Amino acid sequence: MTRHRRGAIAVVMAAALALNVAPAHAYLHLSVTTATGTTALVWKTPRVRWYASDRSAEGVTASQFQAEIAKAFSTWEAVPTVSIGFQFVGFTSASPNDEDGLTVLGFDSQPDLERVLGATSFVTDDVTGEIVESDVFFNAIFAWSVSASGDPTRFDLQSVAVHEIGHVLGLGHSAIGETEIRPDGGRRVLASGAVMFPISLGRGAIADRTLQPDDIAGASDLYPDGGFASDTGALFGRVLLNGRGVLGAHVEAFSVATGSIVAGFSLRESGEFQIRGLAPGAYVVRVEPLDDADIESFFSPSGVDINFRATFYPRLAVAPAGGASERFDVTVQPK
Amino acid sequence: MSATARRVAIVAVLLVMVPALAAAQSASLLHRIEVAGGIGVLTGAALGAQEADLRTATAGQPYRLFSSRTRMSAAPILDLRLGVPLGGRYAVEVHTAYGHPEVRTAASSDAEHAPDLTAVERLDQYVIDGGLIVGLDRWRVAGLNPFVTVGGGYLRQLHEGLVVIEDGRVFFAGGGVKHTIHTRPRGFIRGIGARADARLNWLSGGIHIDEGARRHVSVSGSLFVVF
Predict the structure, then answer these.
(1) Looking at beta carbons, which residues of chain B come within 8 Å of A315?
(2) How far is B193 from chain A (nearest CA, A)?
């Protein structure tokens, strides 16, 4: 078995790391290229064994760190339609950046990454594409909080851990969110509709301890359980501009009945998209350009078109249980 | 008895006999199975509002991506009814109605200025219900036989493409009038007539956003055959 480090993905304060891991499709799912082609980045083991680094950080002991990380793992494990589980093995002095066969989460000081709160890296099997190791570091240059109600001067460790563990599962970033450009050129997040949005809600915010429908759909699609495949459906369509496919459009499915939002991207030059894991029913489909975070947060910016206006599809799209809608075309207008 | 007195008596007897015959005809029809078919309209109703809200750093203060309001449009309906007498002024009736209404969701106030738009789909909607009919004999006028009805049943809605089914319940109260156009004392078909119905329907379940029942009025006109 050949192993090698494939890349890293991060939750950031205001900017994103470039990825070496490719997106597979909606939410996003990460993927790797093997000898037989591109495959989704997933664990093949039903129970991921993880270690907590014995390093502490200012205001957070190693045991406090482990407790918060365990809560974050439990958040994902508690999703009834997700089959994967996690097991804490113990503390380790290993670094969360070592390629050692151990899945380690811990603090690490990375002053050169002054806008990165944390990052996840993978070691994958080059033949099967499965994840064999995934490490997460939390940047110790920031002040972290383990307070139950949050600390307005610190970043909530559990919230960021829930995000990073989403990456550990194989999820990429979600684009459900709104940001504004700050005077210094960075971005300030106004709101997000997924824990997997690439930009943190900021100091003191604890909302991302709780998963949102987009997160749940993405993880369930990777590790389906409890009838997920038969009980949910997909929307399938194309985004077109002047009759041609739009690459990299962000497509949101808004449930008329529940108000939940699950989204995906058009990841082919044909403009095709597929949004899976939807409760059966009617959806408002909204398409917008990928302009609320750096495109590199999601995938390679090459060919991505953001020069069109946000628009709604004029029909309600219906997701059937256990299947996909007929393909429909959403036509957008140039800016 | 004088001739004048005799004529008065005969007229009086006739006057008494005509209502008696009409009542006898009506009563005889009331004790027979009635099948009716017709068309009508089911009014629309608001299904509710849903906001596309995103989380912010401040709990309880969501960011509104856009708003949505959904309603079901009015639509023509096809009605079929089968009435079975219980005796006296009472009958039970099984009724089915089919309609093809639109569900219309208006999306507005988009944070990124997407133009407001109403997204539409068409439903196939079936109602199967049963109810009690009570004839209001005392209110009969000009050949019109009024009645009131109350009952409940099953609602089935199929989304566009017929791939998703939503189930619900219907309760109704209403009334109408029947007018017998033709009767005959014997034979397989004993009478034909026309009826008009108006009902207030409470629909629960099915495609809905807000909890609670939606009120839809239905009015229909039918031709009926009495066997």
Answers:
(1) 119-121, 160
(2) 42
Please give chain A's pLDDT, 335 residues, in tens: 334 444 445 444 432 332 334 444 445 777 777 778 888 889 999 999 999 999 999 999 999 999 999 999 999 999 999 999 999 999 999 999 888 999 999 999 999 998 899 999 988 888 888 899 999 999 999 999 999 999 999 999 999 999 999 999 999 999 999 998 888 877 889 999 999 999 999 999 999 999 999 999 999 999 999 789 999 999 999 999 999 999 999 999 999 999 999 999 998 899 999 999 999 999 999 999 998 877 777 777 678 889 999 999 999 999 999 999 999 999 999 99
Is A263 found in the same domain as A209? Answer: no
Name the residue with tokens 């008596």. Answer: B9
Domains identified in chain A, total number: 2
Tell me: do A74 and A204 sit in the same domain. Answer: yes
- Is residue A8 one of the residues assigned to a domain? yes
Residue A226 maps to a domain: no
- CA atoms of B80 and B128, how far apart (whole Å): 10
Locus of tokens 């029809």: B29
Answer for the pair A217, A79: CB distance below 8 angstroms, yes or no.
no
Q: Is A204 helix (H, G, I), strand (E, B) or coil?
A: coil
**ipTM field:** 0.88
Torsion of CA B79, B85, B88, B92, to 10 degrees: -50
Enclosing domain of residue A270: 232-332
Who contacts A275 (Cβ-Cβ below 8 Å, separation ≥6)? Answer: A26, A234, A235, A251, A253, A262, A263, A264
Q: With 0-12 CB in 10 A as exposed, 13-18 as middle and 19+ as buried, what is A46?
A: exposed
A326 part of contact set with chain B, CB < 8 Å? yes
Domain membership flag for residue A101: yes
Q: Do A257 and B50 touch (CB under 8 A)?
A: yes
DSSP one-letter code for B18: H
Q: What is the C-alpha to C-alpha distance for residues A56 and A141, in angstroms, rounded to an integer?
A: 12
CATH number, position A298? 2.60.40.1120
Residue A209 belongs to domain with CATH number: 3.40.390.10
Pair (A202, A266) in one structural domain: no
- On whether both A215 and A128 belong to a single domain, the answer is yes
Contact between B112 and A288 using a beta-carbon 8 Å cutoff: yes
Cβ atoms of B92 and B84 closer than 8 Å: yes
Whether A236 and A185 map to the same domain: the answer is no
Q: Residue A29 domain-assigned? A: yes
A331 close to B (CB below 8 A): no
Residues A193, B65: C-beta atoms closer than 8 Å: yes
pTM score of the predicted model: 0.86
